[in-house]
Design a protein that fits this description.
By secondary structure, the chain is mainly β. It has four helices and 48 strands.
């Protein structure tokens, strides 16, 4: 509570219907003060001496003198105003001119040491606080080499009070039952304490810690008697102007902030002006919902002009509902003018943060919006909705977060939409949302993909492709795999085409390779695809593909060749009788006409039928030729054209071709040798013109 002390001057000015002039009244009052001061001052000094003796048993005579001097100065003062480190005691000089003298007790630096001094000032007007720049009329040095003195103040009800310029703030608390409201709210200082500690370098000079107490001779309003410094006016107290409009808004400066909104209010009102004196204002907040909140109140004195007055109150909590009251009076003993307004402190908007701390653990955190127990209404929606799985929930929480756990393998590939709003009584806050889309972890890719032939003969290209994995699918899911057989063929360059796609199966680590299109001597490979599948949701991860290297199919030994020569005389294939040319030119010359008229023409083409598998061709072939004299003349190749020259005496000869054999091949592989074919005996006749 904050208020300005009501001085004897303001009381005199407020009196109505007084029968004497103000100067006469003041003079009369001063006479009364002088009369009573002798009595009250003597009693006060004796009381203070006793208190100081109890509080400072180790004080030196110098300290005792300063303490007694302080107690007497406080008792003789007409006004008290101070801070935590100095106190100014005012004394009336001229009641008609309203001038004062003052002495200020504080610490000053003298000769490099902190010293308790009393500075005196004269001719101060209207209780203006003296400053260091004002000319002082004198200084009395009390105690040297001390620490900074500390001053505290309390009113007639022993309620602590602090000064701020013209304002007085009374400490919060509950009024004792036996203490009157007037005493509890009295803004005048009754007790002034000076807590003085000696410097650590002078511990034994004075008391280490000593308290001097001064008691002013003010009395309770209701107990004031003739001659007291403060008297109860005989006429009614001046009433303030009527309080006009009253309203409240959230404070921008006062109170603890929650979600960026302070738990405080600015109470505003119009009116409440007191003529020629400051207004005593009390502003209070009485929360009604929820129950259990403390009442908030502050009292201060301020010169009002009728314009808008703002009062800052803390502890007006977010979500609370209640009533503000403003009361204004011009004198502490008067009945106040009051006005009220109902108010609900809005709930600020919360903020929702959703985090996946693990694959199946979602952490939801709400920004707290009030110091009260607000309900946070949280909701989850999960898509796609899967039968048998918890797809959504609703929950209410009174704290700032919760965790949401799901079964293993159920979160991947789904969308989780969370939302939270706040509620306290009938007040609600806006909804905030957050979305999580847990991505599938990478499925384990196949590695060490190898081909092993299992077939032979007509199925020599068949085999099995095997692989392994470096990792596994996450808990709650199963690895499914399939092989995609790749055919590689030669058409100017290697080209890869995807053909047979295997069946997805759980735990698959091999795929049979037996496509009908596989050729002997060709390269093939396999693409192995792996995915993770959740049996609880039916959802699956993207496929992880791994491509094997090429393997080359093996080739069978081809079937034995079959003679299929060509006779240039008979123009027949497979014929084993042909012609030869003459050796010489006598007797009539030797001219052959098969297939063209020349002496050294070829008589036949030695050829064989071969049996290379599809997509391959003959890579090598040979046979051994033996003439009629048993001489091995050379080795030929399938399809070689040949001819013979006879000696003059021979008309018919035979030539044998033995051990015909061949191999097949592709661009990537060759077969073993074929089986050896049957020998061929070729008969030749001399041909003359």
């Amino acid at each position: 509570m904050t208020t300005t002390p009501r001085s004897w001057k303001s009381v005199l000015r407020d009196k109505a219907g007084i029968s004497v002039s103000i100067p006469e009244t003041v003079i009369s009052l001063v006479v009364k003060i002088i009369v009573i001061t002798g009595l009250v001052g003597a009693v006060s000094v004796m009381l203070i001496v006793q208190m100081n003796t109890q509080n400072s048993t180790k004080s030196s005579s110098a300290y005792q003198a300063a303490s007694n001097r302080f107690a007497a100065a406080v008792a003789a003062s007409d006004e008290v105003r101070g801070t935590s480190d100095s106190v100014t005691l005012f004394k009336v000089i001229d009641p008609e001119e309203f001038t004062y003298s003052a002495e200020r007790w504080h610490a000053a630096d003298i000769g490099g040491k902190k010293t308790l001094v009393v500075d005196r000032f004269d001719l101060l007007y209207d209780l203006l606080e003296p400053s260091d720049g004002d000319a002082r009329s004198g200084r009395q040095v009390m105690l040297a080499d001390v620490d900074e003195p500390q001053f505290t103040y309390s009113n007639i009800a022993n309620r602590e009070m602090t000064y701020s310029g013209f304002d007085v703030s009374l400490a919060p608390g509950t009024r004792p039952t036996k203490t009157s409201e007037d005493d509890w709210q009295d803004p005048r200082a009754k007790r002034v304490e000076m807590d003085l500690s000696t410097s650590k370098t002078r511990v034994n000079t004075y008391a280490r810690n000593a308290v001097s107490v001064g008691i002013t001779d003010i009395v309770n309003f209701s107990k004031a008697v003739d001659g007291a410094k403060y008297v109860v006016p005989e006429d009614p107290f001046v009433a303030p102007s009527a309080i006009g409009r009253v309203w409240a808004t959230r404070s921008a400066t006062t109170g603890t902030a929650y979600a960026g909104a302070r738990e405080g209010a600015t109470l505003s009102f119009l009116g409440g002006t007191c003529q020629d004196t400051p207004s005593i204002v009390t502003a209070s907040w009485q929360p009604l919902s929820p129950t259990g909140q403390p009442r908030v109140s502050t009292t201060f004195t301020r010169a009002l002009t009728g314009a808008q007055t703002n009062v800052e109150l803390a502890d007006v909590r977010n979500g609370a509902q209640g009533t503000f009251e403003v009361s204004v009076k011009c004198d502490v003993a008067a009945e106040p003018d009051t006005a009220t307004v109902d108010y609900a402190q809005p709930l600020p908007d919360t903020t929702l943060t959703a985090t996946a701390t693990a694959d199946e653990k979602h952490q939801l955190r709400f920004v707290r919006v009030s110091s009260l127990n607000v309900q946070y209404l949280a909701k989850a929606t999960v898509t796609p909705a899967i039968t048998g799985v918890d797809n959504g929930w609703n929950g209410a929480f009174t704290f700032s977060g919760t965790d949401r756990d799901y079964a293993d393998g159920t979160t991947y590939g789904r969308t989780f939409e969370y939302e939270v709003s706040t509620k306290l009584g009938d007040l609600t806050g806006a909804t905030d949302t957050a979305t999580l889309r847990p991505a599938w972890p990478a499925a384990p890719a196949a590695r060490s993909i190898t081909f092993q032939r299992t077939g032979s003969g007509a199925a020599i290209t068949d085999g099995v492709v095997k692989w392994s994995y470096a990792s596994s699918c996450p808990a709650g899911t199963t690895a499914y795999a399939r092989g995609i057989q790749n055919k590689v063929w030669h058409s100017g360059s290697e080209t890869v085409g995807n053909y047979t796609v295997g069946t997805l199966a759980a735990g698959k680590t091999q795929e049979t390779f037996a496509p009908g299109y596989a050729l002997e001597g060709y390269p093939y490979s396999m693409l192995v695809g792996t995915m993770c599948y959740s049996p609880k949701t039916g959802l699956q991860s993207p496929m992880a593909d791994a491509q094997s290297g090429n393997w080359i199919t093996e080739m069978n030994s081809p079937t034995a060749p079959i003679y299929d020569g060509y006779d240039f005389r008979d123009w027949a294939r497979g014929d084993k009788r042909g012609y030869g040319t003459c050796w010489g030119l006598a007797p009539n010359g030797c001219i052959a006409s098969f297939p063209r008229p020349q002496a050294w023409n070829q008589s036949y083409q030695l050829d064989f039928r071969t049996f290379c598998p599809a997509g391959s061709s003959v890579r090598a072939s040979s046979y051994k030729t033996t003439d009629w004299a048993g001489n091995v003349n050379f080795r030929g190749f399938f399809g070689r054209q040949d001819g013979w020259q006879f000696p003059d005496a021979a008309n018919t000869e035979t030539v044998r071709h033995d051990d015909p054999v061949y191999t097949c091949g592709t661009n990537w592989n060759s077969s073993p040798n074929s089986a050896i074919g049957a020998d061929v005996v070729y008969t030749m006749d001399r041909i003359w013109r």
